[in-house]
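[agent] plan:
  1. take the single chain provided in the ticket
  2. run structure prediction with default settings
  3. attach structure tokens to the ticket
  4. add a short note for the reviewer (M.T.)
[agent] executing step 1
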Amino acid sequence: MTLEHTLSQKTIEALQSLYSAGIEKVSFEKTNPDFEGDLTLVVFPFLKASKKKPEDTATEIGNYLKSNVAEIASFNVVKGFLNLVIADAYWLNYFKSINGRSFIKPAPENAPVVMVEYSSPNTNKPLHLGHVRNNLLGFSVSEILKASGSKVIKTNIVNDRGIHICKSMLAWQLFGNGETPASGGMKGDHLVGKYYVLFDKQYNAEANELLEKWSQGTFENEELQLKYIAISTKLESAKDDEAKAKLKAELKDLAKANTPVFKAAQEMLRKWEAGDKEVRALWETMNGWVYEGFAQSYKMLGVDFDKIYYESNTYILGKNIIEDGLAKGVLKRRPDNSVYADLTADGLDEKTLLRSDGTSVYMTQDLGTALERAKEVNFEKHIYTVGNEQDYHFKVLFLILKKLGYKWADGLYHLSYGMVELPDGKMKSREGTVVDADELMEEMIATAKKTAEELGKAQDLDTADKEHLYKTVGLGALKYFMLKVDPKKKMLFNPAESIDFNGNTAPFIQFNYVRIRALLRKAKEGLHNFEDVEVFTHNIHLLPKEKELLVKLHSFDAVLKQAAAELNPSLIANYVYDLAKEYSQYYHETNILKESEKDLIMFRLQLSNTIGIAIKCGMGLLGIEVPERM
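[agent] step 2 finished; step 3 output follows
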């Protein structure tokens, strides 16, 4: 039974005994740092039962608790707030129970199964900054859920088919001259991404040519001419800039849809879905290049997966689901042969699930993937880690699956996170202006090297250890910067700020872990074998900062549970930072090895060691390594 639970039960007893109040639930808050105390009870909800002033009610409850709960040393009342001071003996006994132990416990055999999907890359381009946040968030959430008692299956769905893939393939056929990753000296994902950008350049050039022809009155057919005239007429009469911009975009889209290169890509997609051997062979070759490139990026980033799905397999399952939905009358077919779900009664729209030519859309694939996973795994929850730009998509996906009668759809959840932005705006992959993930990681490592050398952090290490340190610090800075922000918020990425050895950064936390490890090595050299000695607590009088540190350690489990419930790694990140910051102050203010009493030396060494374990466990939940030396 936890202290909070004991206090809640005793407070309920107090309310019954003092005021005959039948209260069923009582909760405590952390005491405001401006007042003495560890836990605070707000008594205003009980004034109706007590029929007394807030101060008197709080005092009476405080006296009852002090008389009946041994862990309470004293209390004070500030208006309607009862602040309880927990006795040192409680914190010291707690410390004996955790001293030197990991804060992470393995999930039980019968733990509920949670699937976490993250990454979800397209095989037409390399991973970029947005993928970095996605991968780090999904991986960290997986680790947090495992540590909180769930069995987690980490999954990745690779978007390896569709019109976007055909664009890269077609551009390679048109402009590639047989180039390969080996001949071009590029990672495979970068090479394929290069041709995606080349397609877009050709696409825009052809669209501009068409617009020029149409402006001169030359059209391929009458239907196209009528569409052009309708939009142009509206454009001529448009009043404001926003309306004009929207209509200009409509004209550009009309032109793009009629370019030879886009029509060729559409034809390639139809051939792919029909199983054309030549198209399929090229697809397999280019995707193979990309997979090798992705594997290198994932390894560097420190993320992995238990199961990888491919949309080239699951989209067929999606088509089968659609046929079943048509038979049940849940889905409908239009006169042009396209299939859709009518969700207007639910406040949404008519969602197309199959095009008129029978080819599938993203939703088709997602339906198939969801069904395949549900057949394979009896999951309690399935979490999709996808940016908030896809909020509507997942509302539609989950609703369609529920309408089709799949009960497991109630366990589907969209972990919607904010986009990563740069100082000069959003990234645009088709224009080749993204922040490449590989280049970003290399830049972070190089920045860590420069900063560490300037501060003299690696001067005593050999070359191999230095390189490992630079990687640990650089990638740790990147991961922490991404994860310390609440996932729901958009974020502005600043590499220079993330690598600072001061403030709320990974290097600051890593440095304090290294400080602890150095202290413990020095202690062993001085024959202070703290690991072999039972912690003595009966003669220990806790310093205020020592109590703060123990209270902080005590809250590790509560923060972990909250982070798991909210799917929010930022709670862990900021907890570890606060712990490291408190320890840094303690280290500077307190004699540890120079203390005259041996029991105090041992206690402080063991406290330092346990704090180091908590820091390492917390950073591990974020996927961040902590170095032993710096």
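[agent] step 4 note for reviewer: Confidence is low (pLDDT under 50) at residues 425-432.
[agent] ticket updated
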